[in-house]
Design goal:
Strand content: under 5%
Number of helices: 9
Strand order of the largest sheet: 1-4
Helix content: 55-70%
Order of helices and strands: EHEEHHEHHHHHH
Length: 222
């Protein structure tokens, strides 16, 4: 008699959460390392330190925006993993893909800081940055769709309306990031403004989970 192999599932998400926290910590630390100490004597010119520090304003802005973005992803990662009851191999790989996208963010952040004030290159820098923000949003949606499909990995007591609400919310997020990326090819400042507004919106606390109503004693009897 042949034995069927059951899909391997882990009953806890603790290991994947611990690994993810480590990656978030590294990615968020790398952001500050991209702000370089200014040199006062360059190209035969001598500048004051205050002036040199002021000229780094694009690096400060890019750092703050990316730091807040990664921080929001970390907070939402912590929130949504309370809805995941277990994990499996595919979900682990999707989470790795998401973390890879998050870890990529310091690179477009550095490019944006370097070329934001260059008239001929700023559009490319903004487009790369918008694309860098779009990638983790897509990976996040892939994780959620896989886990929530027929309650594969999420809490089965969650209300279907709440699950659908999160799905539409993540789809809407991708559409906004995609819009910001497309706009960047036409107008960099407007695209950057859209990304800032999106980041501010996601500072709002997530909606509390809604669970199915437990049947009353009379309903169970019937």
């Amino acid at each position: 008699m042949e034995q069927r192999e059951e899909p391997q599932e882990e009953l806890s998400t603790q290991r994947i959460e611990a690994f993810s926290d480590g990656v978030f910590a590294i990615a968020i630390t790398l952001l500050i390392l991209e702000i370089k100490i200014p040199h006062l004597h360059e190209g035969g010119e001598t500048r004051r330190l205050a002036s040199a520090l002021y000229l780094l304003w694009p690096a400060y802005g890019a750092y703050i925006l990316s730091f807040v973005t990664v921080g929001i992803y970390w907070a939402n990662h912590n929130f949504v993993f309370k809805l995941y009851q277990r994990t499996d191999h595919v979900f682990n790989l999707l989470n790795v893909l998401f973390l890879m996208c998050v870890s990529f963010l310091p690179f477009p952040t550095a490019v944006l800081a370097e070329y934001l004030t260059e008239p001929e290159e700023k559009h490319t820098a903004v487009s790369l940055y918008a694309f860098g923000l779009l990638l983790p949003a897509v990976a996040w949606l892939m994780m959620w769709l896989y886990a929530s499909y027929r309650y594969r990995l999420i809490e089965r007591r969650l209300d279907p309306g709440f699950v659908q609400l999160l799905t539409w919310q993540y789809l809407f997020s991708i559409s906004l990031y995609l819009g910001a990326w497309l706009v960047s090819f036409w107008n960099g400042p407007i695209s950057l403004a859209l990304m800032i507004v999106l980041t501010l919106l996601y500072l709002l606390p997530p909606k509390k989970p809604v669970y199915r109503r437990a049947p009353s004693a009379e309903e169970r009897m019937n």
